[in-house]
């Protein structure tokens, strides 16, 4: 498939209605400009106008799939700018295809004519272009490098000129990025030495801009990242410029420690990527050690420094660094990982077990390692102990929800596979004792337990939930009639009674919760019509008193149920007429209410 065969329906399906509509608005308002279609590569390049900046869009087809990019900061895909660009192309594709074909013919004809020119004629034309077009002059200068110092000075000035004052009305990150990318492209054919110098000047200037103003500009960050990646690649291919590399590492570390921008991790990764000799790593280690002395994030820097010692093969220094100031669970886990790398699983287990007792904060990795160790040993008694430790220290993987805890699930799977009834009963008891219940737990318990055990276990579930509901009602702030509260024990108990088809207890559980009354209306309405009438009429009055169309619309929904009760269930249509007439008369000045109640 080619781009001109793509359809608007396919674009709508890809983007979704919200992004598609936004892109369509941009298309209608002619926000897309400089759109160029390349027939040979079946690709589109365009720019899209925005209030504060313009964005570059690139679109192509790869293996019959749309591939597109945009320099805007939107994290989703595709963005409205991509949609607007593709819509612009699809609406006028015949024009863009003809223009591209005409351009190809022009270039083909020009190529023949240029090839027929003599060397002197070509020189004359090339020099004239260099005189009239600065970019041509720059590209020639870079390619020829007749004077490396002069060439670099010129390029350095162009980098500086790409950055107007941030207070200037002409300040545009996209325009800056475009100029810098042009310089990178022009330098691509030059010597490695020139490329390194230019890429570093660009990186340095962008990081300076971002750091000085605490900026978070994706278009500039992307250029800096590309330049840093190129630097790492160039230095990895040659060791001729070690002195220059050392200076770059030190300056990058300076920016990293200032950290007033959003790509500090990229900067650090670049620093490490540039390290190829022990002396490089020593520079980084020394810098991090100095920083660690003056910060509260010592544990973070210890991890980095330990990793650097590991990179140069100094495992003794790596271990000592990891053993310093063991405080958090992650501190212990990093030390356990060290021993695993040294093929000493017993020592790793010792450290991990120590971390479970003494560590603070996150311990998921520690628990998982110890659990897997015991699982390999087939020691499920120890895994039961591990679960009890989690419960005692309140360190389940997901707060108090056993169903999402890896240790609980490991034991449940084991007991199920082994047909261990006693073990499953113990696990169910643990959840009940720790108040981790829902309707699925009720059904699971009913399925697992034998009749005698279920007869004693089931009332405990109900009683536990009822006691907790009473406690919640005592502690809760006054009931907000129009604000449904989050899932709670009343909701769980209601689901259980609904499952049991126990309408009496179901209604008693939810009679003061309008949201749950609405939810179980189909099951309870016929039996509790009087109670529903009382509650719904009360809610309608409160909604109307609150004012607003949304409240009136909600009230109309309750009114439809009241209408159904009077006319269909109680067979008293005159009562409905009396009720709705009185309601409309009482609020006759509320036009929005009148509109929402019009079809009742």
TrEMBL record:
Protein origin, superkingdom: Bacteria
PROSITE patterns: ZF_SWIM (PS50966)
Coiled coil: 93-120
GO molecular function, one term: zinc ion binding
Domain SWIM-type positions: 55-90
Mitochondrion recorded as keyword: no
The name this protein goes by in its record: SWIM-type domain-containing protein
Species this chain originates from: candidate division KSB3 bacterium
Organism placement in taxonomy: Bacteria, candidate division KSB3
């Amino acid at each position: 498939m080619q781009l001109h065969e793509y359809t608007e329906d396919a674009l709508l399906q890809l983007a979704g209605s919200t992004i598609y509509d936004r892109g369509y608005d941009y298309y209608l308002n002619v926000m897309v400009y400089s759109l160029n279609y390349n027939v040979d590569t079946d690709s589109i390049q365009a720019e899209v106008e925005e209030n504060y900046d313009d964005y570059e869009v690139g679109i192509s087809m790869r293996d019959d799939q749309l591939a597109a990019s945009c320099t805007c900061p939107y994290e989703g895909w595709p963005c409205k700018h991509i949609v607007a660009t593709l819509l612009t192309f699809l609406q006028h594709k015949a024009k863009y295809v003809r223009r591209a074909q005409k351009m190809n013919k022009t270039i083909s004809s020009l190529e023949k004519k240029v090839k027929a020119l003599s060397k002197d004629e070509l020189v004359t034309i090339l020099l004239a272009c260099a005189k009239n077009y600065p970019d041509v002059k720059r590209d020639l200068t870079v390619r020829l490098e007749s004077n490396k110092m002069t060439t670099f000075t010129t390029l350095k000035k162009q980098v500086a000129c790409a950055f107007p004052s941030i207070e200037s009305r002409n300040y545009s990150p996209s325009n800056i990025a475009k100029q810098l990318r042009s310089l990178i492209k022009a330098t691509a054919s030059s010597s490695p030495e020139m490329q390194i110098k230019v890429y570093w000047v660009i990186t340095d200037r962008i990081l300076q801009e971002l750091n000085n103003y605490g900026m978070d500009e994706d278009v500039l960050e992307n250029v800096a990242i590309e330049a840093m990646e190129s630097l790492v690649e160039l230095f990895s291919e040659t060791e001729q410029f070690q002195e220059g590399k050392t200076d770059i590492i030190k300056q990058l570390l300076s920016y990293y420690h200032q950290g007033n921008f959003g790509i500090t991790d990229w900067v650090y990764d670049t620093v490490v990527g540039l390290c190829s000799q022990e002396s490089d790593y020593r520079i980084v280690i020394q810098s991090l050690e100095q920083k660690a002395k003056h910060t509260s994030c010592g544990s973070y820097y210890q991890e980095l420094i330990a990793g650097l010692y590991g990179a140069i093969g100094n495992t003794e220094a790596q271990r000592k660094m990891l053993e310093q100031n063991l405080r958090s669970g992650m501190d212990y886990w990093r030390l356990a990982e060290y021993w695993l790398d040294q093929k000493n699983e017993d020592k790793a287990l010792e450290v991990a077990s120590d971390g479970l007792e003494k560590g603070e904060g996150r311990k998921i990795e520690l628990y998982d390692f110890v659990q897997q160790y015991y699982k390999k040993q087939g020691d499920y008694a120890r895994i039961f102990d591990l679960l009890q430790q989690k419960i005692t220290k309140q360190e389940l993987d997901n707060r108090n929800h056993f169903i999402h805890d890896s240790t609980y699930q490991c034991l449940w799977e084991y007991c199920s596979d082994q047909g261990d009834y006693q073990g499953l009963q113990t696990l169910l008891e643990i959840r009940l004792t720790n108040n981790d219940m829902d309707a699925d737990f009720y059904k699971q318990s009913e399925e697992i337990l034998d009749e005698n055990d279920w007869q004693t276990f089931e009332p405990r579930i109900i009683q536990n939930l009822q006691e907790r509901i009473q406690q919640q009602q005592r502690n809760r702030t006054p009931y907000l009639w129009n604000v449904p509260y989050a899932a709670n024990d009343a909701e769980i108990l209601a689901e259980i009674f609904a499952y049991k088809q126990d309408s009496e207890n179901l209604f008693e559980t939810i009679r003061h919760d309008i949201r749950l009354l609405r939810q179980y209306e189909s099951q309870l309405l016929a039996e509790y019509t009087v109670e529903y009438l009382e509650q719904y009429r009360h809610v309608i009055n409160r909604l109307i008193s609150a004012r607003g169309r949304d409240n009136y619309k909600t009230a109309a929904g309750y009114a439809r149920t009241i209408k159904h009760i009077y006319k269909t269930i109680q067979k008293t249509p005159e009562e409905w007429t009396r009720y709705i007439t009185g309601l409309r008369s009482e609020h006759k000045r509320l036009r929005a209410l009148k509109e929402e109640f019009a079809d009742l």
